Amino acid sequence: MEISPSDLPWRSVYKLMSGSILPRPVGWVSTVDTAGRPNLAPFSFFNMVCAKPPTLLFCPIIRTTDGQPKDTLNNVRATGEFVINIVTESLAGAVNQTAIEAPPGFNEFEYAGLTPVPAVRVRPPRVAESPIHFECRLTQIVDVSGGVGGGAVVLGEVLHIHVAEHVLEGEDRINLQALQPVGRLVGNLYCRVSDTFSLDRPSPSIPPRRD
């Protein structure tokens, strides 16, 4: 089947993309508004960009309920700060609760029974129950489309990292079995990182084999 995206409704394009580009890591983003009220929401369009400077990105889409930007994006625009909290299997239920579309000022921490704790370098609180947090300062917002089905790319420089001792090996290695991260699939589906395999990378001094 050959498909031109312009021939389909955006929801169909979304289903094709989100059902193919997976599993996707989940960025649990905490922010505050200009009055200091906290907000917490998950984003499955999330990843790292580079390590020098350490930079992360997430992509908030326009709300389908009212065609408006999500509170997270509005808060980041207003304050220039956010925290990425890493999602684990034990937190999946709470993460799902914080996906609720609620009016500005709604406290997702309280709603999901989570504990906000102060960050070191930024104003938004961290999720105490998450084992890893990245405190970020906004560097750039790329507005792709402002209509329903559209969204933006938010890039932030990591200013401070919190890692719980039980998921850390040595100074800079994360224990995958201890972390137990989850990935986002399509619809209501998530996945565990419990079945892995290893492949040795080819040496750069050996040209690739051509069959």
Structure description:
The protein has a single domain (25-188), classed as Pnp Oxidase, Chain A, CATH 2.30.110. It is built from 5 helices and 14 strands. It has helices at residues 10-18, 71-79, 92-97, 108-111, 176-179; strands spanning 24-25, 27-32, 38-43, 46-51, 54-58, 81-86, 116-117, 126-127, 132-143, 152-163, 168-169, 173-174, 182-184, 190-192. The protein is globular and about 60 Å long. The model has no long low-confidence stretch (mean pLDDT 95).
In short:
The protein is of the alpha+beta class.
Which structural class should the secondary elements be placed in? alpha+beta
Query: What oligomerization state is this entry in?
Result: single chain
> Strand tally, please?
14
* Major sheet details: 7 strands, antiparallel
Q: Would you list the SSEs in sequence order as H and E?
A: HEEEEEHEHHEEEEEEHEE
- Count up the helices: 5
Give the overall form. Answer: globular
Kindly state the mean pLDDT as a whole number?
95
The side-by-side strand order for the widest beta sheet comes to 3-2-6-9-10-5-4
Task: Throw out a few tags for this protein.
globular; alpha+beta; 15% helix; single chain; three-stranded antiparallel sheet; 211 residues; 5 helices; Pnp Oxidase, Chain A
Question: Would you spell out the secondary-structure blueprint of this structure?
Answer:
Layout: H1 10-18, E1 24-25, E2 27-32, E3 38-43, E4 46-51, E5 54-58, H2 71-79, E6 81-86, H3 92-97, H4 108-111, E7 116-117, E8 126-127, E9 132-143, E10 152-163, E11 168-169, E12 173-174, H5 176-179, E13 182-184, E14 190-192
Antiparallel strand pairs: 1-13, 2-3, 2-6, 4-5, 5-10, 6-9, 7-8, 9-10, 11-12, 13-14
